Amino acid sequence: MKIRADLHTHSIGSGHAYSTIDEMALAAKQRGLKILAITDHAPNMPGGAHEYFFYNLRALPEYLHGVRLLRGAEVNIISQNGALDLEPEMLAALDVVVASAHAVTTPENLTKKQNTEMYLKVIANQHVDILGHIENPIFALDYEAVIAAAQEHGKLVEINNASFGLARHGSYNNCLEIMRILKERNMPVVINSDAHVATRVGEVSRAMEVALVQGIKPENILNLNAKKTAEWLKIKLK
Ligand SMILES: [Zn+2]
Ligand SMILES: [Zn+2]
């Protein structure tokens, strides 16, 4: 089963990723994707793109190599009050916003309760579309509470293929727990590559396999369908 939209990818604009947007769009086309979101790291990530990089994403064409390009960002959760590292006006201008906690940008010494409260604030942010890689065991979360809030606010919870390649202790079991709750709640999910190089764009086979085995229904995997994905994000396709 192949995704038609990859909503979390990084270009050289991220500072620690290795392909141009042109190379990524071409790779997306070759993999049969209809939609590719470029979600470079926001400024607080070391080497992340400057605010003006996101402002000027409007210079990109809507279609490149026949693939609908989405102007996005992977913003960092930078404080316990759920603050993000791009201004709301900037986020409002983007097609897709992935919000993530990262070891280098997000407070690391909070309790599970504090992390969960931090996430509830991020979920309440109207500009956030997707919660990125919440399985990261560095940030313990009450997954029941976080996923319930995501459902209530219409946010997508991502299953991140890159997490399956990590030796990070606990990521895999957290993914299973997240999938169990998503399944129970019959929620839409997205399975993204988090590619940092063109050859990984659209590559989600491991995450897809596990999600299906865990009982996530294909009709709930939003990005198997380009049209449904576009409708969810309120973007137009040709
Ligand atoms: Zn990330
Ligand atoms: Zn990422």
From TrEMBL:
InterPro entries named among the record's database cross-references: PHP_dom (IPR004013), PHP_phosphatase (IPR050243), Pol/His_phosphatase_N (IPR003141), Pol/histidinol_Pase-like (IPR016195)
Gene Ontology CC: cytosol
One Pfam family here: PHP
Top-rank lineage group of the source organism: Bacteria
Record-level Gene Ontology MF annotations: phosphoric ester hydrolase activity; zinc ion binding
Domain Polymerase/histidinol phosphatase N-terminal, chain residue ranges per copy: 5-79
Protein name listed in UniProt: Histidinol phosphatase
